[in-house]
Each structure stands twice: as structure tokens, then as C-alpha cells.
Design a protein that fits this description.
Order of helices and strands of chain A: HEEHHEHHHEEHEEEEEEEEHHEEH
Largest sheet of chain A: 8 strands, antiparallel
Order of helices and strands of chain B: HHEHEHEHEHEHEHEHHEEEEEEHEEHHE
Radius of gyration of chain B: 23 Å
CATH class of one domain in chain A: Alpha Beta
CATH superfamily of one domain in chain A: ApbE-like domains
Shape of chain B: globular
Structural class of chain A: alpha+beta
Structural class of chain B: alpha/beta
Helix content of chain B: 25-40%
Largest interface: A-B, 39 and 24 residues
Largest sheet of chain B: 9 strands, mixed
Number of strands of chain A: 15
CATH topology of the largest domain in chain B: Dihydrodipicolinate Reductase, domain 2
Number of helices of chain A: 10
Helix content of chain A: 25-40%
Oligomer: heterodimer
Radius of gyration of chain A: 23 Å
Distance between the termini of chain A: 55 Å
Number of helices of chain B: 13
CATH class of the largest domain in chain B: Alpha Beta
Strand order of the largest sheet of chain B: 15-13-12-11-7-10-9-8-16
Strand content of chain A: 25-35%
Shape of chain A: globular
């Protein structure tokens, strides 16, 4: 018993020592949940659990209030129903500016004013509709184009009342960036943020010091059996994927992609099945992935190779119908751990 | 609209539109001409489903011993009506029949139909007892030109095929437990119209007509386990009683059976009560790597922690709409919206009749499940543990 008494203090001391040692170490924290109609997960390495769920919820709530088509009170819905203009908040200003820039560099394949088409083809909040005929499409095209909106101070104007915005191709990426900004503000420098398959990564896994690995999902047969087409290793940047293999409508055996070409007014139909973009931030990647889907493989590859900050991976149909993949030169370098 | 009215109206229309009634009634040439025997809830449900499958089916005859049922069914399809199924079986304009009668009539009608040269879509459970199941298997072996499909319709949905595939590919690991329930909180009775006897309408309450809850409900889940694992139980034990609705019924309103699958190392718990509806339908298949939870049209896979890590080999996944975990840690097994099981079953019945191939739910699998149901009922009523016999291997 005497001996035992001696042991206890030393054990306690050991415990205290190990605790204090541990607190200096970076620990892994993991938060997951639902937002924007999908799921998110955040992994970060820090000495303590600095990022809370309420901080994350607050970020997603702000984005929803500004940019969600599914919230009747959102700013974007107010713009869409307004005759002329709304006063933007900082989220809308950032996203609209980025959208206009993306529209410019992609020659209008990406265009945030695509919303009337989104609705007409049954991919909007109203759900499936009778398919539009060519006259209806022509008519809708008169409401579409980045030249039909302009920014003046904090106000966003439209040239005609029917001009409406669809932020879905860009808002998710923007939300991911906001969470990353929050982590940076908390002085967390090793993290992975994922929302609906769009990711932003920085730093390394701790304590191993390994880069984060990101699987690029391929259209697999079963959801319970995800197929990784490629795995890339990244210590900084964003990865987003756009594809038509899960979201589509079908009539008489003919599939219609949810990705619409704002220039023609019709669903995009080319050899591409999915495009994955690596870019410095998620908003850029998110806006570009849809645009590249619309460009077709050759044009998209040239577009990426010309821009040193970008890398891309493509899954596509060969003319004989078989499925294969290819990637840009910078994407290839990311395959090494 | 009754038949006379219908003919009058079509006559009227033909005068106006220069169409003969025959044209109006015309269906695609390769549609199967169907006779419906038994026009209760299930028979009429099948008729309505067939109305949406016009290229496959034309209902040319309907039969029921109860007048009000026959009248109701006649409003659904302009078909010839029969009170005696044997006369329907003699009809030349019937290629195949649906048998949706009370259970005790299944064997007699199905056997007569096969002998009359008709293919048969026979509602579950296949037969009232084990000897009838054995006889029907023997009979079908002699009449190879016709199809006999058993209406375990869930079996035909893509979801249940997928789950069978998951099991055979080992996604669930070693399955040791199966939990099934099919509960409700009402007396499970239909209103009896004036002039009819209770046993004519509520035949499910009477032992001489029905196998009760195990036959009418739990047979679907027992059938799926037999099929998905290519097995049958080796031992059956059970209990039950008339525990809440003591209203003159003979079949039990509360049952529980335990099926031991020795070769597969599994225990199946199958229960049904008329005294609580909170959980309703439960179908859970539990293995060392994960559990599948099934509803008739929805399925979720819950990987065990270790298997989850295997699925998440990377730190993050980028995909168009990537693998989505439910809030409760499950993965949806199929994402497209499922049709009703009957829709798939009837499509498959059409294909098998046209091509002469055996349906997945056929006389042999139907017999295996019928044996399970009867052993379950015998165990419930006799309080004995019953064993599978070699004579039950079909």
C-alpha cells in the first residue's frame, strides 16, 4: 500500500506532463453536416477545436440569404423578381464580379443569367416542366447574356425585367472559400473543406506531414461502390468537378444534361462526361468547371494549358462510345504524393 | 360504368367517329390477353397497373364469385365477366391469368389454369399448404410451355436486385442477423357490404382460407432472404396469439417467428402485429461489414466503422454529385425513384411469357417460400420447433 501511494503522484505527474505536451501538438478535428442541399465535411489540424459548428452555420446562412434560389427571401430572388435593380451585399458583389469575369474569359459559355433556361428545362426550384419548343427557347434567349446586367456602385442593374441570375454554378465554390477564409482567420493553416464534392485544401496532414489526397470520382455503377478515377495530392488550392452523369432528365431514352449552354439555349451535349478543375480558389474552379463542360474536350484542354494557375482532368466518351479519361500537363504532376 | 353502358357508349361513339367498337377495344397485337381471377383489392390493383402497361396487357376476362367485386372490376376494364373461373379458363381469348383470390383457392385455380394451357401470375403466398406446393412444382415440370410466376413483387425492383448483388459481392460481410417487421395499428379488416358474410370478405381472419400475417405479409421478406442468399431455413420456431383484436378472428393478430439458417449462419426474426404502427415496415440485413435497411422502394447501406474507412481511402472526394452520406451515416443504395414492385413484376411476367424463360420468382422459389410460411404457422400454432426436410428442396 505504501508503495502504491508513491506510485500515484508520479503517475499523476506523468499525466500532467503528457497533457501539456499534447496541447502543443496539432490534433485532427472533423466536422460534418448538411448545407445548401448537400453535405459538407471539414478536417483541420489545430491545437484546439477553434472552428465551431455555429461559425460554419453562420457562413452558410449568410450565403443562402444572399445567393440561394431556394430561399424566397434571398437577395438573388429579390433581384430575379425586381424590374430593374437591387442593392448588393458583399457576397453577391463578389460572386457577380467573378461570374462576369468568367463569362468574359469563356466567351459566354459560363453565364450567370442562365436562370430562365434552368427553369424552362426543369432544373430550377420549380422542378420538371413540359419541355420548351424552339420558339420558347429563342424567346428566352432574349433575356440571357452578361451584357444584360451591370454593376454601378453597390447596385446591380438589369436591362430588362426578365433577366434572372442562377448562382448555382458558382455559389457553392464561393461558400467553400468563405469557410477556408474563416479557418485562415483562426490561424489554422492545415485543412480540407468539402461541400458537395467541391474542395479547398491547404497545408499537410499532421503529424505525418503528408499532402492531402483527393479522389476524383468517376461515374460508377453503384453509389455504395465509389470509383476513383484518379487520386491527386495537393497542399494548396481548390478542386471542383462538374459532370452530367448523375443529374439529368430523361424522355424517351434521351438524356438531357442539367448543364445548359447560354449561347444556344439547349442542354450541353458533347463527348465530355465530367470535368475536374484545380484552381487557386473554389469559386474560380466552380465557375470554370461548368464552362469547360460546354467547351468540349479539345477547346477545354487548350483553355487550361494556356493558364498556369489551372489544371484539369476530363472523363469523356470516345466516338465508339467507350469511356476514357485524359488530363492537362499540370494535373499530371499532382498525381505524385 | 357497367358493361352494358360501356357498349352503348362505344356504339354511340362509333357512329360519331366512324370507328367500330372493335377498333376502340383494339390493343397491340403482341399484348398478352389476360384473365383476372379474383377482383378484390389486389386483383383490382393489378388491373390498374396493367392499364398503364397497354403495350403488354389487354384484360379480356374478369372473374369473381362476389357480385359487387365483379361490378367494381368491370368499371376498370371492358372485359367479359365470369362467376366461375373454370369457364374463364375455357375462353379462347385468354392467354394468361392473374390469380388473386383467397389463399386456399390458389392451388386449385393455378393447377387448372396450367392444365388449360394458360400462363399464370399467381399471388403470394403460392399455396395454402406444403403438399399443394409440392404438387404444383410437379405439375409445372410437366407443362414446360407455360410460365408460372409468383407475385413476390418486391423481388423485381432494381433496388432488391442491387441488394442481392451487394450480398453476393460481400459488401455486407458475414450476415448473421435479419430483422423484419410488418406492423399496423388497426384490425386489418375490410367492411362487409350488406348481404355478404364476413368470411367472404375478411377471409384473412379464418384459418381455413388464409395463412394470416405470416402468409400475407412476412412471406415477402422470407422470400427475399431465400432468394438473395440462395438458401432456406433449417429450423423454424414461433409464437403468437389473438392479443388485441379478440373479435372472432382465428388467425393471430400478433406473431413472431425465428428462422435459423444453419448453413449460412444466420438468424431471421420475422414479426408482425396489428397493435402498433410506429415502425411499420422493417427489413434489416446485418453483416460484419455493414447493414442494409430496406423499405419497399428505398434502401440505405450503413457501413460498419471499419468498412467506412475502406470506402474513404482518400481525405476528400471531388465528384459531380459525389458519394453522399445521410445524416445518420448511411448511403442511399439507388438514387432513381422506384416504381411500384408490381410494375416491374408485370413487365417481367410479360417478358418471360413472350420468351418462354423462367421468371426469377417461379414455381420452385414460390414453393420454398410457401414451405417457410407453413412451417412458421405450424410452429406458431403448435409451439414446436420444426425442421426443414429434404422433400422441401425443390
Amino acid at each position: 500500500m505504501k508503495q502504491f501511494k508513491k506510485i500515484i503522484p508520479s503517475l499523476l505527474l506523468l499525466g500532467v506532463l503528457s497533457l501539456s505536451y499534447r496541447s502543443a501538438e496539432l490534433r485532427r478535428f472533423y466536422i460534418s453536416g448538411r448545407a445548401q442541399g448537400t453535405t459538407y465535411h471539414i478536417t483541420y489540424y489545430a491545437a484546439d477545436s477553434l472552428l465551431t459548428r455555429s461559425m460554419i452555420d453562420s457562413i452558410f446562412d449568410q450565403v443562402d440569404s444572399s445567393l440561394s434560389l431556394y430561399k424566397p427571401y434571398s437577395l438573388v430572388n429579390r433581384f430575379n423578381t425586381s424590374a430593374e435593380a437591387v442593392k448588393m451585399d458583399r457576397h453577391m458583389r463578389k460572386v457577380v464580379k467573378a461570374a462576369l469575369e468568367t463569362s468574359r474569359i469563356t466567351g459566354g459559355i459560363f453565364d450567370m443569367t442562365v436562370f430562365p433556361l434552368t427553369n424552362a428545362w426543369g432544373f430550377g426550384p420549380a422542378g420538371q416542366q413540359p419541355l420548351p419548343d424552339s420558339a420558347a427557347v429563342r424567346n428566352l434567349l432574349t433575356c440571357i447574356g452578361s451584357d444584360k446586367i451591370h454593376i454601378k456602385g453597390n447596385w446591380l442593374y438589369k436591362t430588362k425585367p426578365c433577366v434572372q441570375l442562377d448562382p448555382n454554378g458558382i455559389a457553392q465554390g464561393y461558400a467553400v472559400d468563405l469557410v477556408a477564409d474563416k479557418l485562415e482567420a483562426l490561424r489554422i493553416h492545415n485543412y480540407l473543406v468539402e461541400l458537395g464534392g467541391e474542395l479547398r485544401v491547404k497545408g499537410r496532414k499532421q503529424p505525418s506531414g503528408q499532402k492531402m489526397s483527393i479522389g476524383i470520382e468517376a461515374p460508377g455503377e453503384n453509389d455504395f461502390e465509389p470509383v476513383m478515377e484518379q487520386v491527386i495530392y495537393l497542399d494548396k488550392g481548390a478542386v471542383t468537378t462538374s459532370g452530367n452523369y448523375r443529374r439529368y432528365h430523361e424522355t424517351n431514352g434521351k438524356r438531357r444534361s442539367h448543364l445548359l449552354d447560354p449561347r444556344t439555349g439547349y442542354p450541353i451535349s458533347n463527348e465530355l462526361i465530367s470535368v475536374t478543375i484545380v484552381a487557386p480558389d473554389a469559386m474560380t474552379a466552380d465557375a470554370l468547371d461548368n464552362a469547360l463542360m460546354g467547351m468540349g474536350l479539345q477547346h477545354a484542354l487548350r483553355f487550361i494549358e494556356k493558364r498556369p494557375a489551372l489544371a484539369a482532368h476530363f472523363i469523356y466518351h470516345r466516338p465508339d462510345g467507350s469511356v476514357t479519361d485524359t488530363m492537362s500537363s499540370r494535373f499530371k504532376r499532382l498525381l505524385k504524393p | 360504368m357497367d358493361r352494358r353502358h360501356f357498349l352503348e357508349m362505344t356504339g354511340l361513339l362509333s357512329g360519331v367517329l366512324m370507328l367500330s367498337p372493335a377498333t376502340l377495344l383494339a390493343h397491340r397485337e403482341d399484348a398478352i390477353r389476360i384473365g383476372i381471377i379474383g377482383c378484390g383489392d389486389r386483383g383490382q390493383g393489378i388491373m390498374q397497373m396493367m392499364a398503364s402497361l397497354k403495350e403488354q396487357y389487354a384484360i379480356t376476362a374478369i372473374c369473381d364469385i362476389l357480385d359487387f367485386r365483379l361490378e367494381a372490376a368491370a368499371k376498370l376494364a371492358p372485359a367479359k365477366t365470369y362467376k366461375d373461373y373454370r369457364q374463364l379458363l375455357d375462353a379462347k381469348d385468354v392467354d394468361a391469368v392473374v390469380v388473386a383470390t383467397s389463399l386456399h383457392m390458389h392451388y386449385a385455380i393455378a393447377a387448372d389454369a396450367i392444365r388449360a394451357g394458360k400462363s399464370v401470375y399467381l399471388e403470394k403466398t403460392m399455396t395454402y399448404n406444403i403438399p399443394e406446393a409440392q404438387e404444383l412444382v410437379k405439375l409445372c415440370a410437366r407443362y414446360t410451355g407455360q410460365i408460372l410466376a409468383v407475385g413476390h413483387q418486391y423481388r423485381y425492383t432494381p433496388l432488391y436486385f442491387k441488394v442481392k448483388e451487394m450480398i453476393s459481392k460481400g459488401y455486407l460481410g458475414d450476415v448473421t442477423q435479419i430483422d423484419c417487421r410488418w406492423d399496423r395499428n388497426w384490425n386489418w379488416r375490410r367492411p362487409v357490404p350488406t348481404g355478404y358474410a364476413d368470411e367472404q370478405i375478411n377471409w384473412r381472419m379464418y384459418k381455413r382460407y388464409s395463412g394470416g400475417l405470416p402468409a400475407e405479409l412476412l412471406s415477402h421478406q422470407m422470400d427475399f432472404i431465400n432468394w438473395a442468399f440462395d438458401t432456406h431455413p433449417d429450423e423454424v420456431m414461433g409464437t403468437g396469439g389473438i392479443d388485441h383484436f379478440n373479435d372472432g378472428r382465428e388467425t393471430y393478430d400478433n406473431v413472431q417467428v425465428l428462422l435459423r439458417y444453419k448453413e449460412k449462419g444466420m438468424i431471421g426474426n420475422f414479426g408482425a402485429t396489428c397493435g402498433n404502427a410506429h415502425e411499420g415496415y422493417i427489413f434489416k440485413i446485418k453483416g460484419t461489414k455493414g447493414m442494409v435497411s430496406l423499405l419497399p422502394d428505398k434502401g440505405v447501406f450503413y457501413p460498419e466503422e471499419a468498412a467506412k474507412k475502406e470506402l474513404q481511402t482518400v481525405d476528400g472526394v471531388s465528384g459531380a454529385t459525389r458519394l453522399e452520406w445521410n445524416t445518420d451515416g448511411g448511403i442511399s443504395i439507388v438514387n432513381e425513384k422506384m416504381q411500384d414492385g408490381t410494375w416491374y413484376a408485370l413487365k417481367e411476367f410479360y417478358n418471360t411469357v413472350k420468351t418462354g424463360t423462367q421468371p426469377v420468382s417461379n414455381v420452385k422459389t414460390g414453393a420454398t417460400t410457401a414451405v417457410c410460411v407453413h412451417l412458421a404457422n405450424e410452429a406458431i400454432f403448435s409451439h414446436k420447433i420444426l425442421s426443414w426436410k429434404p422433400a422441401y428442396n425443390f
